[in-house]
Amino acid sequence: MTIDRGFLNVLILSWGFMLVFTAFQTMGNIEKTVLQSINEDDPNFTGEAYTSLAIIYAVFATCNWLAPSYISMTGPRIAILTGACCYVLFIGSFLWPQNVLLYAASCILGLGAALIWTGHGQYLTENSDSDTMSRNAGIFWAIFQCSMFVGNLFVYFMFTDSKINATTRRLVFGVLTGLAILGTCLLATLRRISNSLVLGEAEGVSSADKELRIPEPARKKPLLAAWHALTDAIDLFITKKILLLSSMFVYTGLVLTFYSGVYSSSIGFTKAMGDSRKSLIGLSGIFIGIGEVVGGALFGIFGSKVSRVCGVWSVVLTGFCAHLFAFVSIFLNLPNDSPFADTDGIGYITPSPVLAMAGSLALGFGDACFNTQVYSLLGILFPQRSAPAFALFKFCQSVAAAVSFAYSNVVYLHIQLLILTITIVIGTTTFCFVEYSTRRERESNQSESDVSSE
Predict the structure, then answer these.
(1) Where are the alpha helices (DSSP H) in 42-162?
(2) How far lies 248's CA from each of 237, 296, 318, 319, 392, in Å?
(3) pLDDT over threshold 90, residue 192
(4) Which of 349, 356, 338, 352 is nearest to 274 (CA)?
């Protein structure tokens, strides 16, 4: 039995991302805690985790406008590999903690993130068609989010004391750097796709013709291609559908900040969680990963069936309910000042590690619901403009993440939860509206095509 080349490309992409982001997502999860421990050992080091992460996402947002231009000259494979190398550099910089190096590496990572994620969106779309896009997006998300397991399980067993010593930190940083290098090597094996483009149903092609392909246009001069890619991204940004979807893009950025940098640290800072509270940081990351993988696998395997029977909106509403449960449980379970430093405070109930892990699971599952459907909808709506479409998604997401990390230094937990609640309501409403109107348009086009063929 032979494996479809496009599907094999998706698998290599997924496992490569999994290894690279095992390193990065674990680092993001523990950065606040480990940088605080470094400062305790060396008062001259004053690097701030939330500031580092804010820089990453601010540069990420800016460079998203330039990423399609870079990809137009190099192709998505080179962009993905370049971005992965930037992640290796960032993770490796923690082996030599210096204030200037931390923030410089954060800037470089922001550039790499724009390249790797925009390149990923185009490469995933080019290896899919309108029927396999939802499946491939779900499979990618499930494999990719396995990254939450390996690194955080390692951290769970390493961070057994209330204080993290230098030897433990160096071992953790070294292992994570090695994983990032391994993932980069795997991404270097991505195979070139055939010189063709898929016409999806969103471009007016019926489902019977979903395999119809057209030749690529003749390659333009690099600078001209880069300029056209930039103007195409700007033109796409002001379309009605992208403007409506942008509220969902913003929400995914805000909640990404919360679960990847704030929530797990808040658990570790809550003294009422017990002496092993630092190990709960890793355990929280594992449960977030479980939710991400279950959601990605579920909606990857059954995504097309769910879409036909209930519509994409049912998946998004499932994620909506999961995240509301998480927000309520966190509001009750954790003290208001827990995002900043060790605290003796408690929430409205006695802090419970079990409830904290349930919140982590719900955050991961809901995030998978939202992201798989965003990837799928963008791939179907813009199969021939996938690079600028995914760049705009990541632009909105990263701007929101940068702003969120910036205010996480000063905004208390309850206000952060209120912001998330307001934006999830707006984002879910606009996403469901765009998905419903798109589905109606496709059904109308299909009916007209069937009538004209009779």
Answers:
(1) 49-63, 67-74, 76-93, 99-126, 133-144, 147-158
(2) 14, 18, 15, 12, 12
(3) no
(4) 352
Secondary structure of residue 145 in the 3-state scheme: coil
Residue 270's beta-bridge partner residues?
A: 343
The CA dihedral of 422, 424, 429, 430, to the nearest 10 degrees, is 100
User: Do residues 51 and 103 lie in contact, with contact meaning Cβ atoms separated by under 8 Å?
Assistant: yes
Phi, psi of 381 (to 5 degrees): -70, -40
Cα 153 to Cα 60: distance, rounded to the nearest angstrom:
28
- Tell me how far apart the alpha carbons of residues 434 and 227 are, in angstroms, rounded to a whole number: 29
Residue 209 is given by DSSP the state: G
Q: Token pair 């800016």 is at which residue?
A: 62
Write the pLDDT tens digit of every residue in 341-363: 778 888 888 888 899 999 999 99
Would you state the torsion angle of the CA atoms of residues 118, 295, 367, 241, taken in this order, to the nearest 10 degrees? 60
Residue 411, Ramachandran bin (φ over 0: left; ψ between -120 and 50: alpha; else beta): beta
257, 302, 273: which is closest to 402 by C-alpha? 257
Gap between the Cα atoms of 108 and 250, Å rounded? 23
Please say whether the beta carbons of 288 and 165 come within 8 A: no
CA distance 282 to 80: 28
CB-based contact 373:315 (threshold 8 Å): yes
Pairing of strands 196-198, 213-215: antiparallel
E strand or H helix that includes residue 277? none
Cα Rg, the chain, nearest whole Å: 22
Q: What is the pLDDT of residues 256-310, one digit of tens each?
A: 889 877 888 888 888 888 777 777 888 888 898 888 888 877 776 665 566 555 5
Which run of H or E residues covers position 230? helix 222-237
| The token pair that represents 271 in the structure block | 């003294």
